[in-house]
Amino acid sequence: MSIVTMKRLRLIALRSDRDALFQGLQELGCVQVDEPAPPGDDPVWTALKRPSGKELGAAREQAALCTQALGVLRRYGDKGGGGLSPRPTIPQADFYDPVARKGAESLVQAVCSAQAQLTSLSAEKAKLLSQRESLKPWMELEIPLDTPSTDTTTVLFGSFPLSVDLSQVMGELGQAGELCAYTPAGRDSSLQYLFFLCHKSVEETVSPILQHCGFSRLTLSGMRGTAAENDARLARELEENRKQSEALELRLTGYADQADTLRLYLDQTAQTVAREESKCRGVDAGEVFYLSGWLPAQREEALGTLLEGFSCAWETEEPAPEDYPDVPVKLKNGKLVAPMNMVTEMYALPAYGSVDPNPLMAPFFILFYGMMMADMGYGLVMMLISAWAMKRLRPKGPTMRYMTPLIGLCGVSTFIWGALTGGFFGDLIPQLLKILDPQSTFALPALFSPLDDAVAVLVGSLVLGLAQIFVGMGVSMYKQIKRGELMAALCNEGAWYLVFVLAGIAAVGVIPVKAALLAILALLILTQGYGKKGILGKLMGIGGSLYNNITGYFSDIMSYSRLMALMLAGAVVAQVFNQLGAMTGNVIAFFIIAMIGNGINFALNILGCYVHDMRLQCLEFFNRFYEDGGKPFRPLDVTTQYVDIVN
To answer: What residue spans define the domains of the chain?
Structure first.
């Protein structure tokens, strides 16, 4: 239930052992390799070199190719690897089997090659279709499209706008028109096409007139024979293109059955990338290499056992306080507290050497969440979802592995609070019984009702909030006393503890209110000027402390009224939908309307309660004692996405 103690690791080993050593470190999974900080301008250090990174580049390229291949197969029938599919398990020996890995590499190359060919065929198809489209206006022309000009004759294929009268064009050509001829072809929505022929002697006269009339010359490159002959050729080429594409698609569809092999290979490649990235953080010096990093103190013996098999020199040391900002943070908590890591990591990890808030936060977070949801039906659904996901999906990753059990724990709390308030999908059961028997007065047993006892629920919410604030104040006092600041702890949180105690005693009538107020006033005057110099400084310190603490504590405590507000809102929304369903007088219609409404209410509350619970922890609780700024501990380990390794 604490922040794990870390040690700095320094290691020098033979470069010939590097691959095997890093493989061992990855399987051990407890060493984070960092880039060593150069000791000033040491000439020896500046002469050291980084590894080339060639292997890292190759591993990343393979990972990218495998990801590309999987993306291709998803388009051709691969349905595996979905978020709701259980991951297959694989023995460790099979995971590192080099023969299977070679086969996967070949499969990746085959898939990527087939996709590259398909891409090329698709581009060729677009080109062929474009060429065939360009032939449509010339299909009526029986003159070969590759008819060349001669020494005495100029041949032109081109077009005029539809608005141009060809007979008028020939008239404008005047006497030169006697040495010209044209054969019209087809038309489209804006142009008319033609074959134009003129004698070389009048070409210089004809060209400006044609351009003035809007003539546009077309180059039909690559065409041999008439338009109809070229169209038939292009049709044959398109058919061949289609057959080749279908054959490749059929091949890829067959590869889709082997997608699990690629997913396994992608996990294998990810381990190689992680190892190579860690290798590149070290430095080389001749035949040896040097690395530095961090490891949990309790894993030092396991690391020593591993390193006994290598010719190396290594040492560990505990970090000095000035090194704490650079020390990575790992939280160690039990099964009931560990899900809180998700909340902490979303906010910020605690600084190394400070307090792990999770054991202190866990009971309040789970209690508050259940209080806001407060429905047995919703709690039961949450528990079932959590149990199913934990058993079937075996969630991994920094978020899902904590979120899934956290939903279950909050579901237990929600069920308990629902039992206290008598809520099961709101008032679903009483409303159902009224449909079956209008005289029914059945109601689930309840200790209190959020609708009828709203004031009591509000008071209870504020009391629970005050209890959490007291815990935060206590942690703050502990930290100050640990630093040797006993008087600061007593004059700050200690004094306000007594203020709340005296106010509470006076509120229940144990002592007169006037006496309690005088005692509180005297206490604050004696303590709130601590640390200030001079009479004026102490007076200003007292005034500032009174204003800041009174407004601060009041606003923080009132923030916990959201516990009552969300409990009340959720209960009201559920009851409204149940009543709407009951108005139909039909059991089936009632269930449809009630379940739709409760489903919406559940979806809104499961997120809303989490957000408001997070706010209470991060703003009202953490600001009492929390020191953030911790860097997450990220060791070199075996982290898989698609398979689970069985040792």
So the answer is: 1-51+280-328, 53-131+229-274, 147-219, 338-439+454-624
Spell out the alpha helix ranges (H) of 422-490. 428-436, 454-482, 486-489
Ranges 156-165, 178-187, 515-524, 596-605, most confident: 596-605
In CATH, what number does 1-51+280-328 get?
3.30.70.120
- Rounded Cα–Cα distance for residues 411 and 403 (Å): 12
CB-CB contact of 262 with 66 (8 Å)? yes
For residue 515, count other CB atoms closer than 10 A to its CB: 12
CA atoms within 13 A on the CB side of 135: 27
- Cα 45 versus chain centre, distance: 40
Q: What is the dihedral of CA 194, 199, 205, 211, to 10 degrees?
A: 20
Q: What are phi and psi of 581, to 5 degrees?
A: -65, -40
Q: What sign for the dihedral angle of Cα 558, 563, 564, 568?
A: positive
Three-class DSSP labels, 337-357: CHHHHHHHHHHCCECCCCCCC
Confidence of residue 425 (pLDDT cuts 50, 70, 90): very high
The closest alpha carbon to 489, from 534, 530, 547, belongs to: 530
Interval 64-100: pLDDT, tens: 999 999 999 999 988 776 656 778 889 988 898 888 8
CATH of domain 147-219: 3.30.70.2750
Bridge partners of residue 632, in order along the sequence: 329
Task: Give the model's pLDDT for residue 40.
Answer: 63
pTM listed for this prediction? 0.81
Angle between helices 561-582 and 400-421 (to 10 degrees): 70
CA–CA distance, 540 with 537 (Å, rounded to integer)? 5
Do domains 1-51+280-328 and 147-219 share one topology? The answer is: yes
Of the chain, the percentage scoring pLDDT greater than 90 comes to 63
pLDDT mean over 395-399: 78
